[in-house]
Every structure is written in structure tokens, then in C-alpha cells.
Write a structure and sequence with these properties.
The protein is about 65% helix and about 0% strand. It has six helices and no strands.
């Protein structure tokens, strides 16, 4: 039977456990640190490519947007894989499956993040209070703003994808090995009290040799 306040304590305990496994876990902040580095490098590549393609009038803004963001995540993902594998999640696995899960996670997160960001920002710029000059072609800034939003969405999706999918660990890997009960250990004849070497058979209750 649960005593007064028992349910509340259990709820708080559950919430605390969830937080400890997510944002209160040092793993999360390691991921953030790696993410900051990736963002600096990735966005630098993204905006450089976006600017260079913008100089070519034969390339549409939409095409430039996708090429630039792809270049961002090709470079950023290579850096992210090694930093998150060995620094953030400390994964010792050496398998093609892990690499495949990482690539799949990056591709899915990238498509969802940028596929959502560009239409949303484009929709915002159709609003009079965002872009009052509706008779003027939307500025190239739309692509830059969408890139920032896409990067933010990508970071959130990518964290959960890498932690719980790409570099997932066995659910029992962090649990300590239970210690064997001394009584049970003694019963299996291997881990009990060491044999003293004194033979107890052949003596009476007073310790004298039996005849």
C-alpha cells in the first residue's frame, strides 16, 4: 500500500530519472560542445557554398540551398562521427552496422529538418507583416534564415538519433554486476569460505579422536 505522498514521490523520481538520462546527463553537454564545433564548421561551409553558387546566375536559389546544406552535412557529419563516437558516447563498436546507422540517422534528420525549414520560412515571407513588399521577389535572405532554422531542428533530432539509435548501447551495459550472496556462494563449492585444511571427521563433540 502506498503511503501519503508516495505517488508524488514516485512521479518525481521518474521525472528525475528521465532528466538524468537526457539533459542532466553529461553526455548531453558533450554532444552540445561537439555540436557547437560542428555548427561553426558546417555553417561556414554552408554559407560559403551558398555565396559561391549565388554568383552563378544559372543556379536557382532552391538548388543552391540544397547543395549548400548537403555540403554542410557531408563535412560536418564526418567530424561529428569521430567526435561523438569516441568523445561523447564512447562507443567501442567497430562495425559496418554502426556506420550505416549513423549515416541513416544523418540523412533522415537532414531531410526532416531542412525539408521543414524551407517551406515554413517561405510561408512566413508570404505574410504582409513579415515581408510587406509582396510585389517584390522574395530576398535571398530566405535561404539564409531557413538554413539557421534547419540547423536548429537538425541539432535536436540528431542528438536523440545518435544517442538512442546510431550509438545505442545495450540496456544492461550500465548496470553493475550483482554480487553473489556469501551463503549462496558457499553452497556452490567454489566461492565459499576457504578450506582450513583441518579434517573434522573422526572426532567427537569434545574434539577427541573417536576410537
Amino acid at each position: 500500500m502506498t503511503g501519503p505522498g508516495g505517488t508524488g514521490s514516485e512521479t518525481m523520481g521518474f521525472i528525475k530519472k528521465i532528466l538524468q538520462k537526457t539533459i542532466l546527463d553529461k553526455t548531453f553537454w558533450k554532444f552540445v560542445l561537439v555540436g557547437v564545433l560542428n555548427t561553426v564548421v558546417g555553417l561556414g561551409v554552408n554559407y560559403l557554398v551558398l555565396w559561391l553558387l549565388g554568383l552563378n546566375k544559372s543556379v536557382s536559389d532552391n538548388t543552391a540551398y540544397w547543395i549548400a546544406s548537403a555540403a554542410n552535412y557531408v563535412i560536418g557529419s564526418i567530424l561529428s562521427f569521430f567526435l561523438n563516437k569516441y568523445f561523447t558516447f564512447k562507443s567501442n563498436a567497430r562495425s559496418a552496422a554502426e556506420v550505416f546507422r549513423f549515416i541513416l540517422n544523418i540523412v533522415v534528420c537532414w531531410i526532416i529538418a531542412y525539408g521543414t525549414a524551407k517551406p515554413f520560412i517561405g510561408w512566413l515571407f508570404t505574410k504582409q507583416w513579415i515581408w510587406p513588399w509582396q510585389n517584390v521577389e522574395m530576398p535571398k535572405a530566405v535561404g539564409y534564415v531557413a538554413t539557421l532554422l534547419g540547423a536548429g531542428l537538425f541539432v535536436i533530432l540528431n542528438y536523440f538519433g545518435q544517442r538512442f539509435f546510431a550509438f545505442k548501447k545495450d540496456k544492461f551495459s550500465d548496470e553493475p554486476t550483482p554480487e553473489k550472496n556469501p551463503v549462496e556462494a558457499g553452497n556452490d563449492g567454489t566461492d565459499g569460505e576457504p578450506d582450513s585444511g583441518v579434517e573434522t571427521s573422526g572426532t567427537d563433540a569434545d574434539g577427541h579422536p573417536e576410537e
